[in-house]
Amino acid sequence: MLLALLSLFIGDAWAKEKPEDLTVFLAQVFGEPPRKPKMKYLSDIERERISDILSHSLSFRRVRYWRKSASSVWLLEEVGKHKPITAGFWLEKGIIKKVKVLAFRESRGWEIKYPYFLKQFNGVFLLENTVLSTKVDGISGATLSVRAMTKMARIALYLNQQVTLPQAPQI
Amino acid sequence: MKTAIQKNFFKLLLLHRRIGLVVIWLVLWLAITGILLNHSDDLGLDEKAVKPSWLNQLYGLESTPVSSGYKLGQGWLVTLPGAYYVNGRLIVADYGPLVGAVLLKNEALLVTSESVVVLDQQGEVLEIQGAFNGLEGEFLQVGVYQGQPVLRSSVGRYIGNADVSEWQGFSASSTGIEWSILTALPSDMLKKISALENPNQPTVSLEKFILDLHTGRLLGRFSWLFIDIVGLLLMAGAISGFVIWFKLKVT
Q1: 84-103 in A: which are within 8 Å (CB) of B?
Q2: ipTM confidence score
Q3: How far is B80 from chain A (nearest CA, A)?
Q4: d(C-alpha A77, C-alpha A17), whole Å
Q5: Which helix (H) or strand (E) holds B19?
Q6: Which of B63, B79, B101, B186 is the most buried (most CB within 10 A)?
Q7: Distance (Å, rounded) from C-alpha B195 to C-alpha A17?
Q8: pLDDT tens per residue across span B7-41
Q9: Nearest CA of chain A to the CA of B117: how many Å?
Q10: How does pLDDT run across B58-113, given as a tens digit for each residue?
Q11: Distance of residue A18 Cα from the nearest chain B Cα, in angstroms
Q12: Cα(B167)–Cα(B161) distance, rounded to whole angstroms?
């Protein structure tokens, strides 16, 4: 009984990849069956900048994103403590509209999946030096996961600037 | 002529002396290791690794020597603890058990049971693919079919496009697919691999080793019995010493 109750609480938190979550997220953004993703190949300068954001060397050279007019969705991954967190970032005109955690593989820090945390990113944009316009409050016990999400948000906004520079908000 | 009391007292003295002779070494052992542990941070014991292979064997860290790998173009891909290497060069950190690797026109694929690692011609990671790229199930095999990558997973087969940006279901016959197969390494490669200093090889810190010496855990599953005996001997030595002192004082 106890195990069943426990599985109800932690089962979803430990869930791995669910491709349908991405499909639903994309449909929510673009209102239609998901289109083919575009591929952003990173230049050396972009790689350097992203490495600075991550505070470690970059482990990828291309990033997938979906784009239609001013809306774009970026699919990013960053390690929380030991395992990568996969998240989708919906951006509109250089501002985060919605964030969704698509796969959380760690055993701790799963609180970042919940709307009360993710809502903090809504309306956030990038200031100079790839700093977020709003400070994201942490969650005790989920510091590394929060840090990974914040870094991914900065990367999504930065990459969006690189592909849609004229639409970046004027500060 | 010695009385019975004197005889018993003499026996107690002998027992105390023998206990002392045994316990003195154990006390020294506990004291030295205890002092070292007390100053572990200052001495940087947690950063020093103990390297003898017999010790790593004792901790179950001795890895079995690599004897096979996957042919990747002119090179060989092997798994060493914590990372994958091509011809002795570290390519990428561990993403799970390797199931194969293939070389394409501009990219190389390194496939583990959970991920498809796409590498460029320089061996740098372009992308890590998985369920969000339409690849489902546990990956079992990778191969090449007419220049395109083919992946076999527990739920089906997939074929990728030329730059491995997209995958789709593949139902054609297996004929013509060149699967990546685990093969015995040639002798020159074996030598090269065995000479590698693997930075990811797990090691035991000196602090851990001394702690296990201090607690007796290094002696294995019966360490508790040994430590119990040491404790009993210490108690026996203390009690016999007190009794001797008391009798000498009274008499």
Answers
A1: 86, 102-103
A2: 0.76
A3: 19
A4: 12
A5: helix B4-38
A6: B101
A7: 39
A8: 888 888 888 898 888 888 888 988 999 899 888 87
A9: 10
A10: 776 666 677 888 988 888 888 877 778 887 777 777 777 889 999 998 889 999 98
A11: 7
A12: 7
Sign of CA dihedral B47, B50, B55, B56: positive
Domain boundaries, chain B: 4-60+206-250, 68-194
User: A20 to chain B: nearest residue by CA?
Assistant: B132
Residue matched to tokens 């572990």: B40
- Orientation of helix B4-38 relative to helix B223-250, angle to 10°: 130
- Read off the amino acid at residue A7: S
Q: How far apart are CA B217 and CA B215, in angstroms?
A: 6
Contact criterion met (CB < 8 Å) for B128 and A16: no
Terminal C-alpha separation, chain B:
18
Which among A22, A59, A102 has CB closest to B125? Answer: A59
Q: Which long-range contacts (CB under 8 A, 24 or more apart) does B190-196 make?
A: B190/B66, B190/B67, B192/B87, B192/B88, B193/B66, B193/B78, B193/B80, B193/B85, B193/B88, B194/B65, B194/B66, B196/B80, B196/B85, B196/B88
Interatomic CA distance for residues B217 and A59, integer angstroms: 40
Amino acid symbol at A114: Y
